[in-house]
Automatic annotation (TrEMBL):
Organism superkingdom: Bacteria
Organism name: Streptosporangium minutum
Domain PucR C-terminal helix-turn-helix, chain residue ranges per copy: 457-512
Name of the protein described by the UniProt record: PucR family transcriptional regulator
Pfam families: GGDEF_2, HTH_30
Gene3D superfamilies: PucR C-terminal helix-turn-helix domain
Domain CdaR GGDEF-like: from-to ranges: 288-402
Family stated for the protein in its record: Belongs to the CdaR family.
Length: 525
């Protein structure tokens, strides 16, 4: 049941389910009424009216935060992450306030939207003709009723935050899939379609994809910054003539909601990335951190590191968001975030294997399309528990450096299979103070080629690559075998080719020399 825009805790818990929120303490029982969600930082003073509210407390709240909420008339407090639940439960029970725990992987902005949606469904706005809306779902219904078409409100990641539920309004498969999946499905026309809307200050018509119904859309902005978009479908009956003006008004009304959601999402992202950084370094309450991310502290995990070599913090965050979406789609347990200009994932070992590499490689292609650059991934070795995640993280970083450098091919590489490339990488780093080709025996041949116009260095490189097989090397060089044998005898007059140590050093120098000349590589990862 609901009353005055509120729902019972029982309805809230049953509707959202244990994957979103669970009850820790219900002193007033499941019939306690809760109202609109309010996002509040731990340790901050409560200044806004919060009586009867569902208080989403970000950060690491302590008992004083629960006591303050109870004194202010808050109906229920929601916490998440590494907190002392026993201490909070004791205070909540004594103060008579409900205490709930949000799921580790659920962002505060997502929970806010879920609760808003529930309130909109069970306690819809009483007057759809009003120009202001209590929440995004009510706003979508207001606009749909006034313009005569189905409405969705989206964020910049094309996630569907709210949609109209007015009876009788037609939608197409694109809109239906977006509502069911809470994200607009991929389509080749979307990049330009959304860019056109975000470039304009007024409503813009969109007729692509051609197989779907026409749409009129407008960007939602706050102080010039784009926060999202509002879309309305034109079906069998033309939209109202003043639809552009109505959408402009709706965009102004939606801006505070989207700004609040963005702030909550940013706060959740910062907290997640900070905790992930602790996990990767083995700092802080590792067991609690692992549990907050849905991992068993004692189970095997593997770390994935993703980067482009330039350390762009914004790009790393966006890449992490894309990778997180892909991993969740394949039900891979773990946490993904951005730390130090790279994206990292700590994944349960039972999620690894060929599918992890395949999904990661596929997402790197999408990341390059959206952000540009040359993105690569390194995968550490599986470690027995989350406590040893720092070891797998260091291995993933080493593998990433190799994948971004000249000694590996492909997009994704595992530390276990890159031993030779890792050795060459370390050797190249140790020789970075001087040119790779400096020093005998290679320098003698480089100088001879420069002075006499010969191709002895190339001949030796091909000869070594063909396992010192003269006929095969001669074929690759388009030479007669006797010509190559003569060339090798001449080289042997300058350096001791028959000496196994000289030949070993020369082979390494040739490999490093070729890597140094290869364009478009970055050895820093």
């Amino acid at each position: 049941m609901s009353a005055n825009g509120r729902v019972t805790l029982g309805m809230l818990l049953d509707s959202l389910g244990p994957d979103a929120v669970t009850a820790i303490c219900l002193p007033g029982g499941r019939q306690t009424l809760v109202g609109a969600p309010v996002i509040h930082g731990a340790g901050e003073s409560l200044v806004a009216p919060v009586e009867g509210a569902l208080l989403l407390v970000t950060g690491r709240p302590d008992p004083a935060d629960v006591q303050q909420a109870a004194a202010a008339g808050v109906a229920a407090v929601v916490v998440r992450g590494p907190v002392n639940l026993a201490a909070l439960e004791e205070v909540a029970g004594a103060a008579g306030i409900a205490l709930l725990a949000a799921a580790p992987g659920l962002a505060w902005g997502q929970l806010y939207t879920l609760v808003d949606a529930l309130l909109a469904i069970v306690a819809p706005a009483s007057d759809l003709g009003e120009t202001t809306a209590a929440d995004l779902f009510a706003l979508a219904n207001q606009v749909a009723a006034r313009v005569g078409g189905a409405v969705t409100i989206e964020d910049l990641a094309m996630r569907v935050l709210a949609y109209s539920t007015v009876d009788g309004q037609r939608i197409d498969d694109l809109r239906r899939e977006g509502i069911l999946g809470r994200r607009v499905p991929e389509h080749p026309t979307h990049a330009e379609e959304y860019a056109a809307v975000l470039r304009s200050d007024a409503a813009v018509w969109s007729y692509d994809p051609r197989e779907y119904l026409p749409r009129l859309a407008i960007a939602v902005r706050a102080e010039g910054e784009a926060l999202g978009t509002i879309w309305v479908i034109e079906a069998d009956v033309p939209l109202a003539s003043d639809t552009p003006q109505i959408l402009a008004e709706a965009a102004r009304n939606a801006a505070p909601h989207l700004a609040r959601l963005n702030l909550a999402a940013d706060e959740a992202r910062r907290t997640r990335d900070e905790w992930l950084g602790w996990l990767l370094r083995g700092v802080g309450p590792v067991g609690e951190l692992a549990t907050s991310f849905g991992l068993d502290p004692g189970e095997p995990v593997v770390v994935v590191a993703i980067g482009s070599g330039d350390g762009d913090v914004f790009a790393a965050g966006h890449a992490g968001d894309l990778l997180r979406t892909a991993y969740r789609a394949y039900r891979m347990r773990g946490v993904v975030g951005a730390v130090g200009g790279r994206a990292y994932a700590v994944v349960a070992a039972d999620s690894t294997g060929p599918v992890l590499r395949r999904i990661t490689a596929g997402m790197l292609g999408q990341i390059e399309e959206r952000l540009g650059g040359r993105w690569r991934a390194g995968i550490g070795r599986t470690v027995p528990s989350v406590v040893q995640a720092p070891l797998s993280a260091r291995q993933a970083e080493e593998a990433l450096r190799v994948m971004c450098g000249p000694f590996a091919t492909g997009r994704v590489g595992g530390h276990a299979e890159l031993s030779a490339a890792l050795y060459l990488q370390e050797l190249a780093v140790s020789m970075r103070a001087t040119p790779v080709h400096a020093g005998e025996p290679l320098s003698v041949l480089v100088e001879h080629d420069a002075s006499h116009g010969t191709e002895w260095v190339r001949s030796l490189r091909v000869w070594a690559a063909k396992h010192y097989d003269v006929p095969r090397a001669a074929e690759a060089l388009s030479l007669h075998p006797n010509t190559l044998r003569y060339r090798l005898r001449r080289i042997g007059e300058l350096i001791a080719l028959d000496d196994p140590d000289v030949r070993l050093v020369l082979a390494l120098q040739l490999r490093l020399h070729a890597a140094a000349l290869r364009p478009g590589t970055n050895g820093d990862g």
